[in-house]
Amino acid sequence: MGATLERTGAMNVILDAYDAPWALRVVAKVLGWPFQWLGFKGDPNMPPAPRALTALGPAYIKFGQILSTRPDVIGDELALQMRVLQDKLPPFSLAEARKTIETELDRPVEEMFADLSEPVAAASIAQVHKATLVETGEPVAVKVLRPGIERAFRKDIDAFYAAARIVDTFAPGAKRLRPLDVIEHFEGVVLGELDLRLETSAAAEFADNIADDPAITVPLVKWAYSSKRVMTLDWAEGLPAGDADAIAAAGHDRKTLGENVLRMFLTHALRDGYFHADMHQGNLKVRADGTIIAFDFGIMGRIDEYTRRVYAEILFGFIRRDYQRVAEVHFEAGYVPAHKDVDEFARALRAVGDPIFGMDASHISMGRLLSYLFEVTEKFGMETRTELILLQRTMVVVEGVSRSLYPQINIWEVARPVVEDYIKESIGPKALAKDLIKTARILSRFGPALPQMAEAALIRAHNPEPADKPRKAVGILPAAAIATAAGLAGYIFAALSH
């Protein structure tokens, strides 16, 4: 990797972006020069940093797409260079795309699509062509996977596993970051992205969820023209979300758009537990009426009801500047080891929240904030939670997109109504009644089996197993009763605390 950075010139760009001292520059040159000819050359027509990442492989491009949304972390010039990774990568030929379409859909292209264009957008996984459905005359977008993309990703992931094992073995302090678990999680996300049938399904589910949301829309999928390596959707016209000047020239309110991007993400994460987890500018457009159009549903995040409630309480605590409650929620959820001091953790959180509360985003250094947050997680022994990786990653990306549209955005003001509405719905008498009904419905499914379960429990009670044998799980009825009691206590406590 270092050799490729040196050969493509990306090493100098990185050193300049962070104003590295001369001593570090000398060390980087001395160590990199002997190996630079072993690195990948990349596309010489691209800027150095994206050139290096495209040469390294598609998994590295994904990392670059995230960085492209955070000029406040990597600098404006480097972020602008990284934008080409979103949808302007070198395409593969139209002939290869036609061959894939015909193989996957088992019909000649001319029978399905008229005027299949050259690629109109190309990213790390696939590229998009514009066409017209022969059957209906509708304009559509045809997404086609890159040839050999599965093998390229497999190579990248294997390299990541090797690096994770090295870190896990030789850096004991990094074990709390669970590098192997993180790579395993990443692998699962990537494998899902390489099957466009799953993406087509995700697009359809997301469209159902947002049907009544006026600020956002998605192109409808064409199931009859979609398969594992080909996906067809309605064609949607709009301005790229990354072109702030064109958006302003078209008369759109950039403040409203920036707030809508952030508000929609929070709404989908909390209300639906299902959110677009790859919301960089290349996957968003702005329609003429100001509606946001979302594309590319290869990476979607799903979080369960319990995690949503924890996440909402943490956000609500920050909004109210109730850092003690935020700290308590972290301990209750098991995010911080129980032996740590909750009051000290609350003070650390105040040092994060108070300096940025009420400030517009243009005055906040996300780089320094992330650095301090990492120090806090290390000090309090917080482990990586793989179930939250997509949520946390998307939050960083979405906030970056919102800031690019409206640099003065106040994330707390935007988040407050969304979080408050969710809190009202998920904690209190209405939520309690809903959960009790759900619990009763689940228990009712086991009604016919209850006599046999009771008999089996009595037999086990009168015929205990030898001590050296592993004990079996408690029967479902007692376990459900315990869970219900715990839930009741939690609701009562939550209702009193709000």
Based on the model shown, name its key terms:
alpha+beta, five-stranded antiparallel beta sheet, four-stranded mixed beta sheet, 24 helices, disordered C terminus
Descriptive report:
There is one protein chain. The chain has 498 residues and is of the alpha+beta class. It folds into four domains: 2-87, no CATH class; 149-192; 239-426, no CATH class; 429-497, no CATH class. The protein contains 24 helices and eleven strands. The strands form three sheets. Strands 1, 2, 3, 4 and 6 form a five-stranded antiparallel beta sheet that branches. A four-stranded mixed beta sheet has the order 5-10-9-7. Strand 2 and strand 3 (126-133) form a beta hairpin.
Count of individual domains: 4
Alpha plus pi helix count: 24
Rounded mean pLDDT score: 78
The shape, in one word, is globular
The CA-CA distance between the termini, in Å, is 51 Å
What composes the largest sheet?
5 strands, antiparallel
Structural class: alpha+beta
Let me know the number of strands. 11
What are the low-pLDDT stretches, counting only 5+ consecutive residues below 50? 1-11, 20-40, 467-498
Approximate strand percentage: 5-15%
- Helix coverage percent of residues? 55-70%
Whole-angstrom Rg: 26 Å
Ordered list of secondary-structure elements with their pairings:
Elements: H1 2-8, H2 10-17, H3 22-32, H4 48-56, H5 58-68, H6 71-74, H7 76-82, H8 84-87, H9 94-105, H10 109-112, E1 113-114, E2 119-122, E3 126-133, E4 139-145, H11 149-170, H12 179-193, H13 196-209, E5 216-217, E6 230-234, E7 239-240, H14 244-249, H15 254-272, E8 274-276, E9 284-286, E10 292-294, E11 300-302, H16 305-319, H17 323-332, H18 342-353, H19 366-379, H20 389-405, H21 411-426, H22 429-444, H23 450-462, H24 476-497
Parallel strand pairs: 5-10
Antiparallel strand pairs: 1-3, 2-3, 3-4, 4-6, 7-9, 8-11, 9-10
